[in-house]
């Protein structure tokens, strides 16, 4: 055991004096305005800004990598849908994020239970980040994913190089290259985006004889000018017009509401109060800056309110129905 000699001196750092301690920096309206003016009148700064803007595409891949890393962290399951809860009475106060993620796996299980045999192949339309395609692959389906989003394509190429990806909208797919190739086509919350007059003939062409189209999505329960999804009666009529029939249907709205309640709780109890607090602090600390941004902040609030209204469970269940469907060509 080491010891310290009696005549030695051990020096310990002294705590900073209150008089010499560094004060936290503050951002003032005068400081912000000064920096903006300085940069806007400096020819060198203006040229640098122009050069960065002109060359922005050359940096796209670096940005894409960062964005994909962000997606991977916030969407570890690879799913972008509402999820499926067996316990329809689950309340948001008792839920955890892990349960929401589990519900997304359960959602995929429910869909895959309706699929045809793995040897017949599957097309995952609107594949998102590839969650369903991964589970299909693991069950032996050898799926092909389809999405028009280049970031989603890049993510699937990196995480599942063995899963082919078609970068296109279904309506723009070269159906002749995949004629009668799939026993099952999935549209998990992507049906709402399809232009049916163009999409239905393509689905007819790529499905094997006797193949099935498994869809899980929400519909307006009545006539509506809202274009976020199809109107149910109009959708059914369009199927009949193009020679399709619904083999099975199930209203699973109660099973997706727990996810909506969970998201809505976080948005209204934490997100909105935090935004209001930040704006109040800005108005008190920087009244001039707040005055200049007042209309922008107002518009931001309206956009947020509209989006929170979309996920309001009461409004959703009053005007929409979430349907699990299996469709096939009418004989």
Tell me the domain tally.
Answer: 2
At the third CATH level, what is the topology name of the largest domain? Answer: Rossmann fold
Shape: globular
Please tally the helical runs, counting DSSP H or I stretches of 4 or more residues: 11
What would CATH call the homologous superfamily of the largest domain?
Vaccinia Virus protein VP39
Summarize model confidence as the mean pLDDT: 82
What share of residues is helical?
40-55%
Do you know the CATH architecture of the largest domain? 3-Layer(aba) Sandwich
Which stretches are poorly predicted, pLDDT < 50 over at least 5 residues? 1-12, 17-21, 58-65
Proportion of residues in β-strands: 15-25%
The major β-sheet equals: 7 strands, mixed
Number of strands: 7
**SSE topology string:** HHHHEHEHEEHEHEHHHE
Q: Which CATH class of the largest domain is shown?
A: Alpha Beta
Strand order of the largest sheet: 3-2-1-4-5-7-6
N/C terminus separation:
91 Å
Radius of gyration: 27 Å
- Which structural class do the helices and strands define? alpha/beta
How would you describe the overall organization of this protein?
This protein is of the alpha/beta class and 331 residues long. It has two domains: 92-254 and 319-329, Rossmann fold, CATH 3.40.50.150; 255-317. The chain has eleven helices and seven strands. The protein has helices spanning 29-41, 43-54, 60-74, 97-112, 131-138, 150-159, 196-206, 232-241, 253-285, 287-310, 313-319; strands at residues 122-125, 144-147, 165-167, 182-188, 207-220, 244-251, 320-329. The protein has a seven-stranded mixed beta sheet with strand order 3-2-1-4-5-7-6, sandwiched between helices. Strand 2, helix 6 and strand 3 (165-167) form a beta-alpha-beta unit. It starts with 28 loop residues before the first helix and ends with a strand.
């Amino acid at each position: 055991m080491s010891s310290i000699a009696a005549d030695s001196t051990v020096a310990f750092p002294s705590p900073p004096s209150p008089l010499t301690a560094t004060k936290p920096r503050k951002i003032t309206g005068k400081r912000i305005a000064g920096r903006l003016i300085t940069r806007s009148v400096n020819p060198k700064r203006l040229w640098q800004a122009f050069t960065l803007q002109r060359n922005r595409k050359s940096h796209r891949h670096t940005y894409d990598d960062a964005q994909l890393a962000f997606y991977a962290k916030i969407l570890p399951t690879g799913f972008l849908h509402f999820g499926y809860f067996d316990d329809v009475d689950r309340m948001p106060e008792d839920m955890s994020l892990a349960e929401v993620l589990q519900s997304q796996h359960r959602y995929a299980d429910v869909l895959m239970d309706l699929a045809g045999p793995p040897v017949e192949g599957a097309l995952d339309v609107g594949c998102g980040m590839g969650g369903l395609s991964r589970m299909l692959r693991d069950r032996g389906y050898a799926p092909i994913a389809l999405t028009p989003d280049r970031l989603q394509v890049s993510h699937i190429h990196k995480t599942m190089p063995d899963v082919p990806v078609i970068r296109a909208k279904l309506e723009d797919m070269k159906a002749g290259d995949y004629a009668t190739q799939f026993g099952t086509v999935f549209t998990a919350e992507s049906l709402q985006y399809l232009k049916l007059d163009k999409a239905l003939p393509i689905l007819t062409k790529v499905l094997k004889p006797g193949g099935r189209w498994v869809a899980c999505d929400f519909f307006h329960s009545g006539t509506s000018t809202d274009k976020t999804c199809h109107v149910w009666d109009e959708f059914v009529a369009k199927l009949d017009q193009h020679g399709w029939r619904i083999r099975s249907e199930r209203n699973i709205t109660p099973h997706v509401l727990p996810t909506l309640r969970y998201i809505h709780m976080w948005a209204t109890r934490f997100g909105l109060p935090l935004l209001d607090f930040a704006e109040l602090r800005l108005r008190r600390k920087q009244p001039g800056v707040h005055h200049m941004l007042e209309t922008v902040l107002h518009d931001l609030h309206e956009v947020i309110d509209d989006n929170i209204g979309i996920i309001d469970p009461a409004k959703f269940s009053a005007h929409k129905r979430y349907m699990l469907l299996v469709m096939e060509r009418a004989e």
